[in-house]
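Example for tutorial group B:
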């Protein structure tokens, strides 16, 4: 993982130490690459929450957790898909956990996945501060 970050836009604000811009590139064991760019500067007080997945056969644009546009690149004659939902993802996640406890069953995402995602955040910060590449 390689990352860069910095407080480029709020230097004049006293005690504002959070970075306003962050960019990282992650290479997975499979050889796949992911880039993440985040900013809280473009629109003051609002994080931009769109993201894109680019693959061999499709590109998916997400404008949030519940809305996407799927463009199939392997067959240009296929219509674009625009799945959308009004589902409250936080409530759904909570209900999934409550159901697992009540029924002594597993949640949709196993608890072992939680620590893995928590390792990624400080890992993305370390190379940005130290200007180095790290391996997880």
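The residue assignment follows.
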């Amino acid at each position: 993982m390689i990352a860069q970050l910095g407080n480029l836009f709020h230097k004049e604000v006293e005690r504002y130490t959070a970075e306003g811009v962050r960019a990282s590139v992650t290479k997975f064991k499979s050889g796949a690459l992911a880039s993440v760019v985040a900013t809280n500067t473009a629109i003051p007080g609002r994080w931009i929450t769109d993201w894109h997945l680019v693959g061999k056969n499709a590109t998916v644009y997400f404008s949030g957790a519940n809305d996407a546009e799927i463009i199939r690149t392997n067959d240009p004659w296929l219509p674009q898909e625009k799945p959308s939902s009004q589902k409250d993802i936080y409530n759904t996640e909570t209900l999934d956990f409550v159901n697992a406890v009540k029924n002594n069953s597993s949640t949709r995402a196993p608890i072992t996945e939680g620590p893995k995602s928590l390792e990624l955040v400080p890992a993305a910060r370390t190379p940005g501060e130290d200007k180095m590449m790290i391996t997880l």
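The longest strand covers residues 21-27. Compare this with the pattern of hydrophobic and polar residues in the output above.
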